[in-house]
Amino acid sequence: MSASPSIVDTPEEAAAQERPPLLVRQPLEAVLDAAGIGSGPIEADPIGDGHSNITYLIRRGDAEVVLRRPPRPPLPPSAHDVIREARLLRALESQPVRTPRVLLIHEDETTIGGPFYVMERVAGDVISTTLPERFVPESTHAPLIEELVDALVELHAVDWRGAGLEWFGKGDDRYLERQLRRFGGLWELNATRAVPEVEETAAWLAERRPVQRESTLVHGDYRLGNVMFGPGSTAGGRDIRLTAIFDWELSTIGDPLADVGYLTATYNEGGGASGPMAELTPVTAGPGFPSRAQILERYAAGSGRELAEVGWYQALAIWKSAVFLEGSYKRHRAGSTDDPFFAALEQGVPLLARHALELAQGSAA
């Protein structure tokens, strides 16, 4: 398939492309005009890794905002629901959760080729493969992760019923059962090849499923690369502040320990045992960063929750990642994306599946 621009000016240009664009400037300008967001031509640049929902920094006159939309189709059922995500963020504006403010929700898919929402731009640093200069001193490393853990404790303490989020999830004690059923079904839908470790881990998880003790707001993809730290100096590392949590696509009402399992299973502690997902944030393998055990200790102290079964939740997290990313690999094979990250999933998904099984077997030991 020949390359097609991701951003075009008019609907006519979009219709003439072999592959649909991700942004169409003229109709988007009309939507922003109606909402009073900036004026004049749009400048747009992709931000973030762009491997799931797509995020653009939009500059227009003196306005700078962020637009989020789903990737190109075909998409798995119920996946990449940016409108649901936007409505959650609006509901959380009244709660003590660190989220950006939503400015506009647009459900008409014909405007730019998919539904989208626009949120305020939050200033600061997102940390993934490298450390911003102000976070190079080792004295800043522990405070970064302490903020990450404390913000998760806050998230899990949200009064989701008081925020009007009954529609967002069932809120019963069957979340883990539904997760196994849903992702098992997704594997049947997404699978492009046989990966025995996926089925083996699924069977292990079903046999040892813990009892869910409570229901809270759950992020679903909580890690260092999905949060932002506010601007400012870091004298002594004591003024570090996590200002925003992003990428709520997988959030729901469920078992809070699912987030704890995901955070620690994907945390790079250094060494081969960290697994393939830890490659997303290699910086935490450096000196001064807390260990997984220290993360669990801080979360337990802040939340009052018992973490004895966290190994099960860690295996669940990596298994779900393998299933979810197989869907991305399927889209790559269908030609709907030329992102090299998705091409690498030919080997990446089996690696994740093997790591999930290793975590399961290690937890059972």
From TrEMBL:
<feature type="region of interest" description="Disordered">
    <location>
        <begin position="1"/>
        <end position="21"/>
    </location>
</feature>
<dbReference type="InterPro" id="IPR011009">
    <property type="entry name" value="Kinase-like_dom_sf"/>
</dbReference>
<keyword id="KW-0808">Transferase</keyword>
<dbReference type="GO" id="GO:0016740">
    <property type="term" value="F:transferase activity"/>
</dbReference>
<dbReference type="Pfam" id="PF01636">
    <property type="entry name" value="APH"/>
</dbReference>
<feature type="domain" description="Aminoglycoside phosphotransferase">
    <location>
        <begin position="46"/>
        <end position="269"/>
    </location>
</feature>
<protein>
    <submittedName>
        <fullName>Aminoglycoside phosphotransferase</fullName>
    </submittedName>
</protein>
<dbReference type="InterPro" id="IPR052898">
    <property type="entry name" value="ACAD10-like"/>
</dbReference>
<dbReference type="InterPro" id="IPR041726">
    <property type="entry name" value="ACAD10_11_N"/>
</dbReference>
<dbReference type="InterPro" id="IPR002575">
    <property type="entry name" value="Aminoglycoside_PTrfase"/>
</dbReference>
